[in-house]
Specification:
The N and C termini lie far apart (37 Å). This protein has strands at 3-6, 9-12, 17-23, 31-38, 44-50, 57-59, 67-72, 77-82, 91-99, 114-115, 119-124. Helices cover 0% and strands 50% of the residues.
């Protein structure tokens, strides 16, 4: 499956952005999907993931309560609504997909076979 992330940009602290990730596969509903981010000089970290049917969502502690992950399987699209952004959220955001259900390992980037190209989010303070 090919993934195309979009929606990044420059936003002031306290603002909001919504990222999208369009998938090419009609079998999108069979993939666990998630978002990761990488700040300059840091490793790529888990942000959020969602189960295949959208029934379960999982978040990093740093974004819990501010970010919401969702998916529209009919549109083959993954979303990340980001609210109350702060400077620490500045990063390149990647969407990723894993075949099947990977509940216990969804926070590990090694579990994901497919990656989008990344979209840059810059939060100015």
């Amino acid at each position: 499956v090919q993934l195309q992330a979009s929606g990044g940009g420059l936003v002031q602290a306290g603002g909001s952005l919504r990222l999208s990730c369009a998938a090419s596969a009609r079998t999108f509903r069979s993939y666990t999907v998630g978002w990761f981010r990488q700040s300059p000089g840091k490793e790529r970290d888990f942000v959020a993931a969602i189960r295949r049917n959208g029934g379960g969502t999982y978040y990093a502690d740093s974004v819990k309560g501010r970010f919401t992950i969702s998916r529209d399987n009919a549109k083959m699209t993954l979303y990340l609504q980001m609210n109350s952004l702060n400077a620490e959220d500045t990063a390149l955001y990647y969407c990723a997909a894993a075949r099947g259900e990977i509940i216990t390992t969804m926070r590990s980037q090694a579990s994901y076979e497919y990656w989008g190209q990344g979209t840059l989010v810059t939060v100015s303070s």
